[in-house]
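Cross-posted from the bioinformatics board.
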Amino acid sequence: EAGVVQSPRYKIIEKKQPVAFWCNPISGHNTLYWYRQNLGQGPELLIRYENEEAVDDSQLPKDRFSAERLKGVDSTLKIQPAELGDSAVYLCASTNHRGDEKLFFGSGTQLSVL
Amino acid sequence: AQSVTQPDIHITVSEGASLELRCNYSYGATPYLFWYVQSPGQGLQLLLKYFSGDTLVQGIKGFEAEFKRSQSSFNLRKPSVHWSDAAEYFCAVGDSGNTPLVFGKGTRLSVIA
């Protein structure tokens, strides 16, 4: 079974440019998360989806960040415009809140803003 | 406010030696506690988690962790380290059995021969 798939693996852009990250969760997982991991830090939760609804986006910088999860499956995280401080690894994770189901993480998208 | 502190940024141990990685947390309610491992180029992998019951939790790859409420700690241990254990380890706290909300900054483990 495929795990959580993220693309692209790496992205280099100039500041003020837009960028988008894509996540395909494990089949059947209704809960999806986006985390941001800065260099030398632990991941920080940005947004949590239950199916297509964003149930917790309190940590998402809404002035430049947006996310969507159409049809409750794949998700896209967008930054527009990107700033130098946005350089980080963006992680997607999914789970199916059944009993003791655990969270599965993708390998992430490493963003460098120049 | 919720927080997780991992006091050791980097630890080096010899292969076969025992290991203990420290984690202290601050959380208002009874926390769910997690330990994750991250190898270069790999996604985060859950080692173990704790919510209630036995305070000594067994995980994968021979790891265990002990919850000490009085010390607000959840230290990770392994009796004999293997070279393949070299990675970054993160402690996290959450409000449910699957969602780590706040991570520590991580401890990088190096293993020498």
